[in-house]
Automatic annotation (TrEMBL):
Protein name per UniProt: ABC transporter ATP-binding protein
UniProt lineage: Bacteria, Pseudomonadati, Pseudomonadota, Gammaproteobacteria, Enterobacterales
Every ABC transporter domain range: 2-236
Record SMART domains: AAA
Annotated Pfam families: ABC_tran (PF00005)
Keywords, comma-separated and alphabetical: ATP-binding, Nucleotide-binding, Transport
Amino acid sequence: MIEFTQVSKYYQGRAAVNALTLNCPEGAFTVLAGTSGSGKSTTLKMINRLVEHDAGQIRFAGRDIRDTDVQTLRRRIGYAIQSVGLFPHWTVAQNIAAVPQLLRWPKRKINDRTDELLGLLGLEPAQFRSRYPHQLSGGQQQRVGVARALAADPDVLLMDEPFGALDPVTRAALQREIRRIHRLMGRTIVLVTHDVDEALYLADRVVLMDAGEVVQQGAPYALLRQPASPFVREFFASSEPGVRLLSLETVAQRMRAQERFNGAAVPYNMTLREALSRFVELGVVRLGVTDAAGQPCGVLHFNDLAGAEPSV
Ligand SMILES: Nc1ncnc2c1ncn2[C@@H]1O[C@H](COP(=O)(O)OP(=O)(O)OP(=O)(O)O)[C@@H](O)[C@H]1O
Ligand SMILES: [Mg+2]
């Protein structure tokens, strides 16, 4: 969907991004990770031409982005950023409706979509619709930013540390929400983060950057198990590599589906990392597993957490 070929961007003669070649496949969740100043935000902004690249080629849906009208391009791309973004003199509803307005959606459709998104992101529509950005907490502003990026149902969603200012609980809830939205709508998402756990939890594909260059890109599992350099190993495995691996799999992948157990249960879609902490918390070696309808669908054994590698 988005392909960079030997793309460079220079500021005052210094490369912020250097000969970058990367690929964000259609429908995939790509996470750009890396140290501060490694060029992640610059890379993201080149996709919707908020920053123009100096060398190389960027293709969007097969076409050179320089051959596409900027406005047309941006309408197909939702963009959410951590810091700025909301129009201060517009209400929450007006902010979310910015792109649908441009696209001249009927009023009714815009209102419905706005309320739907507010609900999706945990903001009670009646309470938040008419507020102004300065009447929101930082985390609420971020959520409105994400809602605005999603509003017109864009082909591609770009997010630059969208959950940066959130407490761990809200952050985890929004990560689950965005993952659910991704699975549901099959949209192509490119998200920037320097949070290792967030990268591993969300990504189909991780692109790890350092000093304006890609150090390694691939499935999270591959980066954890076959780091291409000491930098990659250090970035991901500075602590608890084994536990991190568990966050890549769900209970459903390791449970014994034919067994039943009447004690404490966990949902089938919980990560094994969360399940591990449940085992320790409860001091048990077996947990029942429930399906989406809350019905028993298997048993997870503590010993199976250390089982064979999944296929990737
Ligand atoms: N407008 C600009 N003018 C000059 N230099 C810039 C500009 N924007 C970015 N840079 C430089 O380019 C490099 C990459 O910046 P970028 O914002 O892409 O990094 P980042 O990976 O997003 O970092 P962070 O994690 O801190 O947000 C940095 O060295 C930065 O100082
Ligand atoms: Mg940045």
